[in-house]
Amino acid sequence: MKLDTLPKETQEAYHNYKAHNWQGIYPKQNQGSTKRNEIRANATYRNEPPKLPKKPKGTYKEFDVINRHDLRIFVRDTQTDDIYYTTDHYKTFVKIIKF
Question: Which domains does the chain show, CATH number per domain?
């Protein structure tokens, strides 16, 4: 899926994470959020049962688009730097094609 076909807020989150080298939340991202709706970024995604290519544990990292209750999540392959996107909370994934 091409990045420019995704919703604007998803594209913005992608670019913000990328600008910060996918190292975690970016500045002011959790500003005004509570513990209940905080954003999780750079946590390990276990890929169990496997929905993405099998890799060693710890290879995949997950990043919320809006907050921890949003169904939209990026998953980054730290070996290849490929980014996958789910809109249904890990049921299905599409690989983001960078432009």
Answer: 3-95 (3.10.450.30)
